[in-house]
Amino acid sequence: MASGERSRRRLPFWIELPILVVIALVVALVVRQFAVQTFYIPSPSMENTLRVNDQILVNKIIYHLRPPHRGEVIVFEPPASWRESLADKDFVKRLIGLPGDHVVCCNATGQVTINGYALTEPYLYPGNHPSDRRFDVRVPAGRLFVMGDHRSLSGDSRIHLDENSGTIPEGSVVGPAFAIYWPVNHWSGLPVPETFEHIPPPSR
To answer: Would 8 be classed as within a structural domain?
Structure first.
């Protein structure tokens, strides 16, 4: 029989299994470090979009490929002045204003406006107003304006207007959340609300 191939001998299962486990752990660590990370929600500041103890998936790659989009739910490292304790390592809010945007509250009907366009915000916590605080902010270059969906319980850009107009550095953003994966009965995607698709570019 003319055959130059040698049959491969399989490793015993008791050796192969630990190798596979190590490979799986390495892959999981690489994915967590560079691609997707999980976060849990400790506060009601994003209700009812996100509820306390929800767990979300965050895309850590996408902002290396494109800029942030208004309306996305983002996870970021808060400025030191925003933290109430050392345990406050990551915040989650909705991205409202991009660099150059003119963000104002409120217009004659009580709505937040971006570059003159009035937002329709069905994601707000029931009974909340778009904002109980008035503001008029031109978002500085390299920074973002963020707000929670439960406006009456959210320590967001509106609360810190005396520091960089309440904005956060773009570089502090971990990434956008794209899904709630736990608990199972609250599983859902986190798409950008339609109202953000109609905002005009900032005036120069």
So the answer is: no
